[in-house]
Specification:
By secondary structure, this protein is of the alpha/beta class. Helices cover about 40% and strands about 20% of the residues. The two termini are about 15 Å apart.
Length: about 280
């Protein structure tokens, strides 16, 4: 199985030498300044995983050990969480900032993403209830003033489209943002929650079915069915515990700047590189 190591900064030759020994990967060599690959390394067991994590993390290196000879074009769909994955912010936290409740809402968001709050529906209702009475124009302000794409997002999406993949944005956040991103980025499918708005004000309620972990996984399956693909032909990227179920059905799962519970279960974790680090995992 090949070993891929990547960084935002040039990888030191001493680190390459150490990794050759650590991972039993004598063929590890640089591919440019910031990516190193080896055709084969030791089997990825708990010992090697822990050793690679201990060596790479303080050096701001991301690593992956994946099945050999996989191409991006072998996949049919790339599915992404929105908040803190495709974009750098948690939209609900930024909305709450406009009514002076960001700290309170952020604490609930963090606990939910770490898996400490197991009822996502209830955690979302609690947070949305705190937004009651806020002017709906705040949603546009959050999008225009605070929402930023994660590093490498557009390059990753462009390469995925060029390889024939379709794109899905599935979020426990809000339709107001996913629809704007769909138009901006040319995404194929989106799914998110709808904030109830009456007379231009947020009511503190969510309309319809809440997009929780089960709904996210179902949405990935439905998108795959719509394009005639198997879920194992999907790449799923996320950061929180409510992404785990959709990541579990995918052929490749990527934990992006993710909580520890997600990093532990994903195929690969990107703690430092951008979303376009995905492209370095493949031969094509």
């Amino acid at each position: 199985m090949p070993l891929i190591v990547q960084s935002l900064q040039p990888i030191a030759s001493a680190d390459i030498d150490a990794l050759r020994i650590l991972a039993d990967a004598p063929g590890l060599s640089l591919r440019g300044d910031t990516v190193a690959t080896a055709e084969a390394c030791a089997p990825l067991d708990a010992r090697l995983r822990d050793a690679l994590e201990a060596f790479c993390e303080p050096r701001r290196l991301d690593w992956a050990v994946l099945p050999t000879h996989r191409n991006l074009s072998d996949f049919r769909l790339v599915a992404m969480d929105m908040d803190s994955t495709l974009i750098t912010i948690e939209c609900i936290d930024e909305i709450a900032d406009f009514c002076g409740l960001k700290a309170e809402v952020s604490a609930i968001t963090e606990a939910a993403m770490r898996g400490e709050i197991t009822d996502f529906n209830e955690s979302l209702r609690r947070r949305v209830a705190l937004l009651k009475g806020l002017d709906a124009s705040v949603l546009d302000r959050v999008y225009e003033e605070r929402l930023r794409l994660s590093p490498g997002a557009e390059r990753m999406l462009g390469a995925a489209r060029a390889a024939g993949l379709r794109t899905l944005l599935v979020s426990g956040g809000f339709v107001h943002f996913t629809e704007k991103l769909k138009a901006r980025l040319g995404l194929d499918f989106t799914r998110a929650n709808t904030l109830e708005i009456v007379d231009g004000k947020l009511t503190g309620r969510v309309e319809g079915e809440i997009v929780n972990a089960e709904v996210k996984a179902r949405t990935v399956r439905e998108a795959c069915e719509a394009i005639g693909a198997d879920p194992r032909q999907a790449i799923v990227m996320g950061d929180g515990s409510n992404d785990l179920k959709m990541m579990a059905i995918a052929g490749l799962s990527v934990a992006f700047r993710a909580k520890p519970v997600v990093r532990a279960q994903a195929s690969v974790a990107f703690n430092h590189v951008g979303l376009d680090g995905l492209l370095n995992l493949f031969a094509d």
